[in-house]
Amino acid sequence: MRAIGGLRAFGGLWRWRHNPLRRTTDLVEAWLAFAALVLILVAAPLIGAVVGTTAQSALQQSVREQQQSRHRVTATVVKKVDGSPLDPDPETATTRDRQSRVVADWTGPDGTRRHGTVMANLKTPQPGDHFRLWTDGQGRTVGRPLDTVTATTHAVLAGFGATVLSAGLVEGVRRLIVWRMVRHRYTRWDQAWDKAGPDWGRTGAGS
């Protein structure tokens, strides 16, 4: 909306650009608003597209690497660790959110037998229950690998964020320049009033 307002201001100033009341700063401010509009409508989306594309490429590479290096294995519950399941909101939590800490045994992809405390997607785990968990090639527990949809969502958000940030930066610079121009204009007015002196408007005072 600020950019549209700047375009309207530019159009208005352009119509009376030969008006003798027009100041140089007025024309500079109009061109500044027009340049900011072009940058917001063209450059900012372009920057967002570049950032989004770059993020997408990097994240999809991470997806491929994680899917190759992480493996899902079957673990067996030895005993449940004291403590309630991680279910902060029973009314809204899904089965995937209902996890319990258990001591379990599992075998890594390389044949290494492992034993330790892990999170199990079991609401009421009992000794001997089986569940699935993610490990690296040596059987050490790792997080779930990043999936394609999540990676794409993150890339889109990164691109959108870059677009908004770029547009905000352009508008911020424009406002800063206009503010400095206005301050300079007021300073010149003050200097002009100081030169006029207290006799301004009196007959024979030369004003």
Write the layout of secondary structure elements.
Blueprint: H1 2-15, H2 24-69, E1 71-80, E2 100-107, E3 113-120, E4 130-135, H3 148-196
Antiparallel strand pairs: 1-2, 1-4, 2-3
Helix pairs in contact: 1-2, 2-3
Largest sheet: 4 strands, antiparallel
Shape: elongated
Provide the β-strand percentage band.
Answer: 15-25%
Please provide the count of β strands: 4
Count of separate DSSP helical elements: 3
Helix content: 40-55%
Q: Please give the order of strands in the largest beta sheet.
A: 3-2-1-4
* Assembly annotation: single chain
Low-confidence stretches: 84-96
For the record, give the distance between the C-alpha atoms at the N and C termini, rounded to a whole number: 44 Å
- Rounded Rg: 33 Å
User: Average pLDDT, to the nearest integer?
Assistant: 81
Briefly note the structural class of the backbone. alpha+beta
Secondary-structure element order, N to C:
HHEEEEH
Keywords: Membrane, Transmembrane, Transmembrane helix
Transmembrane segments: 30-51
InterPro entries: MT1774/Rv1733c-like
Region (Disordered): 81-114
Describe this structure in words.
The protein is α+β, with helices and mostly antiparallel strands and 207 residues long. A hairpin with a 5-residue loop joins strand 2 and strand 3 (113-120). The chain has helices at 2-15, 24-69, 148-196; strands at residues 71-80, 100-107, 113-120, 130-135. Helix 1 (2-15) runs antiparallel to helix 2. Mean pLDDT is 81; it is low at 84-96. The radius of gyration is 33 Å and the shape is elongated. It has three helices and four strands; from the N terminus they run ααββββα.
